[in-house]
Amino acid sequence: MKFPLAILLLCPLLASAQLVVMVNQPKVVGQKAVVSLALKNNFGEKVESARAVVFLLDEHGKMVGQSTKWVIGGSRNNPGLAPGATNAFHFVIEGVKPLATTNLTAKVKFTRLTLDGRAADASKDVVIEQPSK
Question: Where are the beta strands (DSSP E) in the chain?
Answer without folding.
Answer: 19-23, 27-29, 32-41, 47-57, 63-72, 86-94, 105-115, 118-119, 126-129
